[in-house]
Amino acid sequence: MPAFRTTPRRSLAALAALPLLIGALASCGYGSQAKKDETKVAAVGEKLSADTVRLGYFPNLTHATALVGDQEGIIQKELGGTELEVSTFNAGPSEIEALNAGSIDIGFIGPSPAINGYVKSKGNNLRIIGGSASGGVKLVVNPDKIKTLGDVKGKKIATPQLGNTQDVAFLNWISEQGWKVDAQSGKGDVSVVRTDNKVTPNAYTSGSIDGAWVPEPTASKLVSEGAKVLLDESTLWPDDKFVITNIIVSQRFLAEHPDVVEAVLRGSVKTNQWINANPDRAKESANSRLKDLTGKPLGAKVIDAAWPSIRFTDDPLAATLQAQADHAVKAGLLERPDLNGIYDLGPLNKVLKATGQPAVADAGLGVK
């Protein structure tokens, strides 16, 4: 079974007179295993078609929609009497494993694990039903060793995991420089060192790596240790936008409980609206949830630097998912995939229409 922690949010219908309790504690050290959280009283309301919905996400700032939506009770409020049960994960493969095993129903996850999960199941295990965030990925380096992008050649640069979203992006960038690297071993004109995000700062301070292509807040943690941002990945994409976090759902759960899926999406949309309207309060909320999950909040220096680089959006930016799949194919990490049907944006567009927002597109990769 995948390693994760579960946090129940139980709906106590008998306490209908009580107000919704929103947990004041919350969140964050990056990439740590989640801790057991206090039970929160669900919003008073009618139970939907499922007693419980099990939601997975990472204790990362790029998953702040989930962090804030959970911390502030926004998602639970939309679920009414249906219980929200939360599990947190350190990496995409373990979350996909949990989805396949039926341990979670819905998850926030990066594009590469979503693509890999869809392809390996021959299109039978998940659908992407919405976006969550864009950006929040940077190439940060030791300024004493690397002063220009050309200086990256011959250096040791960390990525979080072989074949993960940042690994694919870095391998693609290396290729565009005309340099050669064996994708599997990471050896070549640049040494790609696969390193868990939670130990990357120590690897940097020890000198075993010269930099890293990593998501927030790891990038800003390295900067706090003296590293310099050499490149923000968003500058490589049209309009500076690329998907970093999607919302996925088990196809079985989507078919059996569309009302619950729609409620979670309403919660996500309302959370992103609240984050964008209240960035400082949202930043504090995300950090509180991270503290609760990992035992340690991010320092102000780190989170203040990391937060502005992440854009919170309901649009899954589907065209960039196809591009990321193409990059993985070019790197030799993936055979050319058939992504037709990976999206079902019908429920999300229904929610967006109800709030007066325009529909989002699936780049021709939606269910027919």
Question: How is this structure best described in words?
Answer:
- This protein has 368 residues and is of the alpha/beta class.
- Helix content is 36%, strand content 18%.
- The chain has helices spanning 64-71, 74-79, 92-101, 111-120, 165-176, 200-206, 218-224, 251-256, 258-277, 279-294, 300-306, 318-331, 346-354, and strands at residues 5-9, 52-57, 83-88, 106-109, 126-135, 137-141, 156-159, 191-194, 211-215, 228-232, 243-250, 310-312.
- The strands form 2 sheets. It has a 7-stranded mixed sheet, sandwiched between helices.
- The protein is globular.
The total strand number stands at: 12
Assembly type of the chains comes to single chain
Strand order of the largest sheet: 1-3-2-4-11-5-12
What value does the Rg take, in angstroms?
Answer: 20 Å
The largest sheet is: 7 strands, mixed
Number of helices: 13
Helical/strand content category: alpha/beta
Give the overall pLDDT as a whole number. 89
**Percent of residues in β-strands:** 15-25%
N/C terminus separation: 33 Å
Task: Estimate the helix proportion, in percent.
Answer: 25-40%
* Low-confidence parts: 1-5, 8-43
The sequence of SSEs as H and E is EEHHEHEHEEEHEHEHEEHHHHEHH
Strand and helix map with partners:
Blueprint: E1 5-9, E2 52-57, H1 64-71, H2 74-79, E3 83-88, H3 92-101, E4 106-109, H4 111-120, E5 126-135, E6 137-141, E7 156-159, H5 165-176, E8 191-194, H6 200-206, E9 211-215, H7 218-224, E10 228-232, E11 243-250, H8 251-256, H9 258-277, H10 279-294, H11 300-306, E12 310-312, H12 318-331, H13 346-354
Parallel strand pairs: 2-3, 2-4, 7-8, 7-9
Antiparallel strand pairs: 1-3, 4-11, 5-11, 5-12, 6-9, 6-10
